[in-house]
Amino acid sequence: MNNNKSTIIGWVLIFAVMVGFIYLNQPSEEQLAEQARMRAMQDSIATVEAQKQLDESMAEAHYNQTLLQDSTSTLFLAAQGEEQNFTLENELVRLTFSNRGARVTSAILKEYTNQEDLPLELFNQDDESLSFMLDGKNENIVTSKLYFQPIEVSDSTLVFRLPTNGAGYIDFSYRLLPESYMLNLSVQAHGMQNFFPSSMKTMNVDWEQRVRQQEKGYTFEQRYATLTYKINGKGTDHLNEMKAETEELANLDWIAFKDQFFSCIFIADQEFKSAEVSSSPINEGSGYLKNMTAETTVFFDPSGEKASDFQFYYGPNQFQTLKESSRLSTSDKDLDLDKLIYFGWPIVRWVNRFFVVYLFDWLNSWGMNMGIVLLLLTLIVKAIVFPFTYKQYLSTAKMRALKPYIDKINDKYPNPEDALQKQQETMQLYSKYGVSPMSGCLPTLIQMPVWMALFFFVPNAIELRGQKFLWANDLSAYDDLLHWNFDLPLLGDHISLFCLLFSVVNILNTLYTMKQQPAGGDPQQQKMMKWMMLLMPVIFIFALNNYSAGLNYYYFISTLSSIIIMFVLRQTIDEKKLLVQLEANYAKNQQKPVKKSSMMARLEAMQKELEEQQKLQQQQQKKK
């Protein structure tokens, strides 16, 4: 009867917390003003971008018009022509090139589809621009404004030549590697020593792209869309995912315009000597996530003795694919492209890179449904950390077995001012019975990296993209089995069923765990702790509603299996026998001096200091 009453009270409290949480988190007037300011800022950015495009178009028209009007210009031939498109493709990717600018204008990944079930296009000529700029003695070359001549065209090779009026030429030589997402580019001048100053050692390269929204959920996908880069001899880093940011950098091996599951990576064999990179969010509903730019300087030899070598990666953010692509580097550097995938903080990242990835790939090789793969992955991880779970539970069970003795200490010191002395006697009791309250913390800390590893791994697993399981049509996006045509505060226009299941199971797990906790300590602190434990699962409903179904499914089965494990341990560990063992420990410890722990020593020191302060206060009161 008491259990049923407690359960009812618990659910009433949860409902009250939910209502209060929604009410308290409604936007204030200040927050609404800030949101309006952010919208105005984004509109201002859009206006600036539109003006920038207009200015660039006008500058381009002026540049071309100037060259066309001067037949004696070295670039007169390159300023006129008609745009032509060419294609290179292999088993994985189809790339479209334009002779205007000698650049890639479209990248289509053959093995992937978009939300309309059409071949996935990373970008087209309206989304992306790439321009090489070289300063001459009298004239400057801006490749995006000039027409190149196709010199060599085959299934895997394409050579564009920039013609001049008797001053030599520059070749852009592309080669698409077989069964790969890698495209090689070599830029080399021929006979142009008189066009360029002898002191010239670098050229400028401007790269810009509006990153498309490829997935179902804008909010979740934008969180993983980042401009990422690798510094030569160091690791990778990225710009802020949530706001506009610009950084000035030096000595970069590569720059990546990264989406949640796909990336365009620009690699320089001779490094980007300097780079100004920027990323800014684009409003939801536009079909895009972010606008990313990179203005760089890179090696260029005007004599033509040495080419400037580059590579492009247009493909998925798949760990093994990126790792294999790094081996295709045309330089002697380790590109570490697989580090493009953010697997969490150092310890968590190691767990993912050297354990979770390979376990997941092994399970995936069986050809099972991804829902089953995640289930087996979770159960295997649970089995591996079970010894630590067992030790943690055993520590709690020992403290629960000593509950009658702890209750006597609580009754002995009912007043708040005796809290320190009560804690001191409690620690002495634990020490005499050979129980350490901290012994349950270490197993928890050991399990945390594994638990967190899957939090970072699952959203980055492209293998889950488009995979159906139960009612979820795509495990990489939220499962909106329940949805409506208006936005609710903090919730949006849907509720993820896997998220709801996880939160409900978490509430049940919290209620069950609270029943297993030994009594003791400050009642007010205990009460506050219970409220926090109940509030967290409710917050999960709002915090994880836009997260991927795969991640919420993992949390659901992980929490459910934890409940089952705790229930089995509860049934198999006899606390009466455990108490007998603890009494034996007590009898054994009575025959030898008690060894004080560092915590016990600190508590005693605090107790002595408190007693001295009390004596001092009493003496001062007597004098008064």
Structural account:
By secondary structure, the protein is of the alpha+beta class. The chain has 4 domains: 2-39; 70-342, Beta-galactosidase, Chain A, domain 5, CATH 2.70.98.90; 351-587, no CATH class; 593-623. The protein has 15 helices and 19 strands. It has helices at 2-24, 29-69, 218-224, 319-326, 346-364, 370-384, 386-401, 403-412, 419-432, 441-460, 497-516, 523-543, 549-572, 575-590, 598-623; strands at residues 85-89, 93-98, 103-113, 119-123, 128-135, 140-142, 149-153, 157-162, 169-176, 182-190, 202-212, 226-231, 236-238, 245-258, 262-281, 288-299, 308-316, 482-488, 492-495. The strands form 3 sheets. Strands 5, 6, 7, 8, 9, 10, 11, 12, 13, 14, 15, 16 and 17 form a 13-stranded antiparallel beta sheet that branches. Strands 1-2-3-4 form a 4-stranded antiparallel beta sheet, with no helix packed on it. A two-stranded antiparallel ribbon has the order 18-19. The longest helix is centred in the N-terminal third of the chain and has 41 residues, at 29-69. The model is unreliable at 1-28 (pLDDT under 50).
